[in-house]
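Treating backbone geometry as a discrete language has practical consequences that deserve illustration. Part of our work consisted of pairing the sequence of a single chain with a tokenised description of its backbone. What the numbers capture is local backbone geometry rather than side-chain detail. For completeness, the protein is quoted in full, as a sequence line and a line of structure tokens:
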Amino acid sequence: MLQGQKLHLTLSAPSLKDNTATIDRLAKAVRQATGQWPVVAVGRAWLLAQVIRQAGGDVTASLVHGPAGLVLVGVEPGDQSATPVAADILARVDEVPAGPWGQSGLGVALDIGSTHLQATLHDLASGQELAKGTLMNPQTAVGSDILTRIHAAASPEGAQRLHGMLVGAAQELIERMCAQAGRRTAEVVGMVAAGNTTMTHFFLGLDSQSICREPYIPVINRPAPFFASHIGLALAEGAVVWCMPNVGAYFGGDLVAGIVAAGLHQREDVAILVDVGTNAEVVVGNRDWLIACAGAAGPALESGVAKRGVLAQPGAIEGVVIDPQTFAPTLRIIPDADGRAPKPKGLCGSGLLQLLAQLYLTRAMDMRGKLTLADHPRLVVDEDGVRGYLVVPAADSASGESIVIDEIEIDILLRSKAAMYTILRTVLLEVGLQFEDLSAFFVAGAFGAVIDPETAITLGMLPDLPRERFVTLGNSSLSGCQRLLLEPAARPQVEAVTDKLTYLELNVNQMLMNRFSAARFIPHTDASRFPSVPAYH
């Protein structure tokens, strides 16, 4: 017969200096008292978090030792430790799976991106990848940015809609992959998923409202494994899902998965991981310590800067080489499904950065980002007198409009690259290191998949290190999920990553701003930092 226990706890108040998730705050207090970290059924997390918040942290936790370990089955306000745990509450222990999936059947690794969902289907016995797929995140219909989606989820109906969109998309993606592999969704017994903290909350059906408000407190950062059916996924009976743990409101499970993919948490020597999307997210360290930070440095890579900027898709210009004599560009365009190069639609992130590097190397642009062309067919001036470089004439573009990069857009791009370099240098200086101390430089995300280090170094976006130190990871979130899917016994080691990881707030100070200003030039005002890049004369 199961035995329950009650613990009266007084939790520390959340603050900007301690924005531990609500459930995790209680779990830490339980671990201090019992030596064990309790797990909670995902379907109970928001209900229990509300009690904790409304009680101001003065609560009594009901705990049960079951097959899954120590389970948090209830929370009451105030001191209720003298009363026994009710029988119906004791029964909640069965809402948490006793263990992960077995070594047979199918498994799914899922990256819950804010723009796309990407997944792979695996045979768990052999580890073989049977299929892979990508699907646009249907939440983009609600809003392209996370904040808009959080606002849309403010009501219970809105929250359910956002949750249903994600789960429905995940189900569709799994069904597509199973069909591709000639298998059935009823064979899927396990799944590992990762996303940023908000995406994880949407996926689990948890309230997201406090993530965007001071002091930025998620409901839970270390969700326990749960039954797929509890969030509406139709897989094998008893199929188990595990979401990668988050660290805070702005450091999600996708980054933890990246640490796992790079093996950063197991390295003896110091290395760095950079994942660039809307933000540049950076982790530096080794098996003994990990420091993380994030900063706005990625809009140039998500079609958010240039008027003719587009996401990476068929028709997007992903590469540019400029003739140093004629200044005419040779373009590399993402082909369509038939392998044909369509008319160009615009420049994606890699194309934009390569274009800037080529303009600089051919001296069509100076180190300040100012075009040097005079009376040249490639130089265009708009009605406001803004100068630009003509990439594609109107007659040759998919839209019938010219594809141009102007000096205003170039300045914004240079600000993005300067922010990137400044973030990297600042986080290293905070721990007393220089770029030369890094044994490896892991580059992840869409940025890592498409940009070559040579281009980024030319612009001064990445440090001028020996090229063999740069390791491209592609979708490191998905890679980390794949690793945990096939090695579920490594879960405690991965959760330990969140305990050793320190998040560094990059406060705007004069030194940081000075570094940023110096990095706005190509490649930098201090040319000695980039010895391999031809200096501008």
About this structure: The longest strand covers residues 58-66. The chain has a mean pLDDT of 90. The radius of gyration is 25 Å.
